[in-house]
Each structure stands twice: as C-alpha cells, then as structure tokens.
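Example 349, ligand adenosine-5'-triphosphate.
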Amino acid sequence: MLGWLRKRLCADLAIDLGTTSTRIGMPGEGIRLDEPSVVAIVRSGQRVAGRGTAVGKLAAQMLGRTPEGIQAVRPLRHGVIHDFELCEIMLRYFLSKALGNTRGFRPRVLISVPGGISAVERRAVFNSAERAGAGRIWLIDDSRAAGIGAGLPVSEPLASMVCDIGGGTTDVAVLSLADVVATQSIRTAGDVMDDAIVRWMRRRYSLRIGELTAEHVKTSIGSAAPLEHELTQEISGLDTASGIPRKSLVTSEEVREALSEPLMEIVEAIRRTIERCQPELIADLADTGLVLTGGGAMLRGIDRFLSQHLGIPVRIAESPRTAVTRGAMICLDHLDRWRSGLDDGLRVA
Ligand SMILES: Nc1ncnc2c1ncn2[C@@H]1O[C@H](COP(=O)(O)OP(=O)(O)OP(=O)(O)O)[C@@H](O)[C@H]1O
Ligand SMILES: [Mg+2]
C-alpha cells in the first residue's frame, strides 16, 4: 500500500511497555503518552476503579494509599506481563488515549520488551496487544531500541554498547552492523534498588518504610558515586520494635551503601556482556564506551561509578526515560530497513 495512504488509514505507534511506566510515541508526532503502568481495581468483582478510568496516572496516585476495597496493581513485573487481563485493560486504555482523535483501522504497533524473555512471555505481549486493539504487531528488544533512540551508530561496523536501567530489568547490549552482538538482561534494576533501601532502613535504623518512600529517598538523595555536597533527608517510618511512627535522618552516603549491592550486579552484567565479544569489538568499546538509558540512568553519579569500575567512557543519553520509545519510533518510521530484526510473532527474530 502507498505509504501516505496507509498512514492516513492506520496509525503507527511505538510502545515502551515498561514495568514502571508505559510510553507511547507516534512517528512524526513525538511522545503521545507517558504514564505509570498501574491499574486500580475494586477488590470485590475485579473491576477497574473509577468506572474504568483508574489506569495510569490516576491509579498511581492510589498506590500505597488506596481507599479500602481498592487495590492498585502493576500488571508487569520485571518487564514481563504478570497479570494478563489487567495488562490488556491498561493497554486498551493507553492506546485509545494515545490515538486521541486519530481515526482509522487498528494501529500498527511496535512494542519493546526485555531481551531475555521467553517465547511464552513474548506470545503474551502479542495476545495482550491484539486484544487491546492493535492490528499488526512487532516486538523489539529494549536494548536495541534504546541504542537506536540514544543515537548510537548501531548500523556501522563499529561496536557500541547500551545499558537500559529500568524499574524491573537492566538490559545491556553490544550492537554492531544493526545486530545485537552480545546481550544480558538481569532483574536487578530500580525496584530492586528500592527494596535494598527498605531492607537497609530496617537493619540500620529499625525503621519500616514502604517501597514508595524508598523510591523517593533514592530519587531525592540516592547516588552511585560520592557527591560534592552530600545530602540528607528525614524519613518517616514505623519503629519495628515499638510499632510507633518515628523519623530518622538519613545521609546520601548511607543510601549509597544500601545501593552498592544492586549497583555491583549491574557492573557484573555489563562485564559479562563485554566478555562475550570478539577482541576487535572490545577494542572499539574502549573508544565508543557505554551509553545509559532508562530511569535508572538518572541516579546521581552512575556514569562516574560505572566508568570507574569498567574502565571505559560512560555517558547518559539525552532524556534517558524516553530513549526506548524514540528508538522504536525511528524503527517504525524506517520499517523497511529495520523489519528483518523485529519479531513479528511468526518467526524468531
Ligand atoms: N532520579 C532518579 N534516580 C534514580 N532512579 C530513578 C530516578 N528517576 C527514576 N528512577 C527510577 O527509574 C525506574 C523507572 O525507569 P523506566 O521508566 O526506564 O522503567 P521502565 O521502562 O518502566 O521499566 P523496565 O524497562 O524495567 O520494564 C524506577 O525504578 C525509578 O525509581
Ligand atoms: Mg524500560
């Protein structure tokens, strides 16, 4: 079909179906939606709260402080669909919001998924998207989309490396000649960092805090490398011995200590990826270095930390949270060029 005619009849959407957030972009139009991957349901009857509208931003406001009888659920865990039905509801809601007034046939969608997921988990994404209203569906690996979105020279005969640190997974890949040469996907990412802070607060201060508080601590004073001016924050929680609410003053050095284990696991995943490459490609990486994408790339000093441990240059992509979506938008825009590397559900990409 003629390109222009097809574009008028059916929209193209790039979907980053993330554990923490879902972002949808339309080639030529930019990012149309960026909302938390959360659905709030009424416990009795499993209906979506707010007469079907408690999805995304509205549902996220309910996380951790839901009124009785309502439960806020994240349908994805570690980048894979955990609750199929809710994922479909969420996707349908997001698709219609992203499409807005755009009319036409079912949209063609390109969805990014973590590299390490199984064939069954991939199939669940296809089915969920199809039932949510998508027409043609392709999948792309998070790290490949991230590399393209971050502007790496992925098609050149030169190795470049990307590490996407999301909420549920960290995806590392070395790319060359438009192909993934080596890749690793681990389940250590933002959520595990939050857990590490929860556990650390309990051990060190006998203070019980929730995951949302831990995430807040991480984003407001968390760091991977020493800061010029170290920070402090007062944290409220429940004293584990007395069960009474209490406050503690926590420093950025302490949070860094709490985050050291998950951060070292990310270093090891990157090391393992590099070790799988040919010596010539490893030599390239010493020059081209590593680019960081995903929300985790915004942790203070993570570029310095990784550079020190890996001995290669590390830089943070521009707008790291949306790099995957932008990469998927580029692929959709130049589908003829990228199609062979995508999973269309008929064969293994
Ligand atoms: N300033 C910050 N410092 C540290 N972490 C941050 C910061 N901002 C966001 N994050 C973390 O980034 C993570 C979300 O990143 P992102 O939106 O890339 O994940 P996702 O794509 O939804 O998840 P995944 O790719 O794993 O499925 C969360 O864990 C969040 O706490
Ligand atoms: Mg992601």
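Summary: The longest strand covers residues 105-113.
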